[in-house]
Amino acid sequence: MRKANNMSTSYLEEPPLPELRLPARLARQGQPWWNPQLSFSPPTARYRRPEPQIAAAAVERRWPSRVIENAPLWCSVDLRDGNQALPNPMDPTRKSKLFALLVAMGFKEIEVGYPSASATDFDFVRQLVERDLIPDDVTISVFTPARAELIDRTFESLAGVRNAIVHLCNATAPEWRKVVFALDEERITQLALDAAERVLRGADRMPSAAVRFEYSPEAFNLTEPEFALALCNAVAARWCATPDRPVTLNLPSTVEVDTPNVYADQIEWMHRNLDNRGSIILSVHPHNDRGTAVASAELAMMAGADRVEGTLFGNGERTGNVCLVTLALNLLTRGIDPQLDFSDIDGIRRVVEWCTQMPVHDRHPYSGNLVYTAFSGTHQDAIKKGFDALEQAALKAGTAPGEQPWRVPYLPIDPQDLGRSYEAVVRINSQSGKGGIAYVLKTVFRLELPRPLQAELSEAVQKISDARGQEVGPKLLWEVFAEEYLKTDDYLRVTDHSGHPDDGDDRVCVHVLYTVDGREIHGEGAGIDQLSAFKVAMAQCGIQIETADVITQAARAEECGEIAAYSRVVTERGATWGAGLADNIGDAVLRALTSSVNRALRGSRTF
Ligand SMILES: [Zn+2]
């Protein structure tokens, strides 16, 4: 999906350092001695904080102590706001696909276009209506500016629709009033009311459709609050808002210019001062210019917003709209039902990437490629322990791990709840440690190595990742493990063995071949089990085994056998660990013992 363009591959070639030539000046006055930063004289005088929009005296904020308890009414604007910001707007196939995705995810309000602006948008609305693609419980919304002929054209696009919202918008902020339209407040109000009237009459001509209304004062966050309030009240009154036919008042931060608390103050002030509040759906539409759209939306919900407009993965003009994936999953991680289906986050992402032709960032919350991946050894260790604790708790409670409360360090959400596997949770590079290696062997190969063996293996892996300067994927990890422990053509080989206590045999025979200094020595031993027979055979080869312990486990790994055995063998050269994999216990145990002895003969590091 990643397109090979200059943007995404520019980091492959080493660039020169940029020539930063602004003269460094003094630190600001009063800067503490421990902060030696200097000023590079940026053009601060050209910028200023926006005027406080609400008189300090009028701010009586309650939102800081509120807690979000429910999902808002979601409205996706992917097909309008999001689409109009794309370098290549979606073609009808892509629009249809995204619409189908939004419906499947559970969106009940979907803004589908700006039908008076383009034939594509007009035709798309017609297609949805004529092909009966809109489920009964889904309301489409169409966007229109406050101009008579554009409103009329918008209604034409809706002919035959069952449920629709006509979304009327006009510019109200002083900058727009003066610079863009040269209209005063009175004429802006008149324009909005005339348009509202025309919208009302348009809906009257469609008696068989349930048409509702939405009004957005454009750049609400930059508009004098008293003016925005008066306009909203006037428009809602003109539309005869009632609890049965509520009017949506949408208050966009069209361009995000302040910290999220300021937006929350503005929303709370509107929430408390709007007329007829029970007949109003208070909606927010945060943009992300300062990178805080998600925070703005959340604080606005605390401040009284009922509805949120945004897009999947935050597509939209400039820095985009608020990301509804992040917002909704932030709710889920607090135990609140987001009322949207994210059970296949990667599938959702692939469709959106294809429709918008834009990749989702590797670190995008909840959905990026790397967001459930830990490379750091300490993180991996904690995650491994978290998963182990979860398994234990599930075992104790007699439930599946997926039903236990989620408490895994560094992972705010269970990737499996979003359709992700655990395999990518831990990846190995030079920053990783034995916990990470153990995790990968367990999740990918279903092997649970004893701790000392993990430590040994992690040294071998560290050497490889340091030498290569790159990630050690599961395949390479397996090769390192196999090279270190599973070699069969080493100094010592078991050539034959027979009998097994589990099969009722009371005698086990083991034959070994030991190659040393170009000589081959045969050894043969018998005993009550593999271990004792092996010891005798080894003694015949001149290798005294002082003690040996063997652990066996079910391995369930297709490529390496049913049984895993791990052994710790002490010879005159010290203690060494070994591992053996086979389809039966006898083979696995003997392979592990052979592995231990071979590692001792090779002079491997001992524990
Ligand atoms: Zn917008």
From TrEMBL:
Gene that encodes the chain: leuA
Annotated positions binding Mg(2+): D81, H285, H287, N321
Chemical reaction(s) catalysed: 3-methyl-2-oxobutanoate + acetyl-CoA + H2O = (2S)-2-isopropylmalate + CoA + H(+)
GO biological process: L-leucine biosynthetic process
GO molecular function terms listed in the Swiss-Prot or TrEMBL record: 2-isopropylmalate synthase activity; acetyl-CoA C-acetyltransferase activity; magnesium ion binding
Family statement drawn from the similarity comment of this UniProt entry: Belongs to the alpha-IPM synthase/homocitrate synthase family. LeuA type 2 subfamily.
NCBIfam families (alphabetical): leuA_yeast (TIGR00970), PRK03739.1 (NF002991)
Name of the protein in question: 2-isopropylmalate synthase
Presence of keyword Transcription regulation: no
Pyruvate carboxyltransferase domain location: 72-346
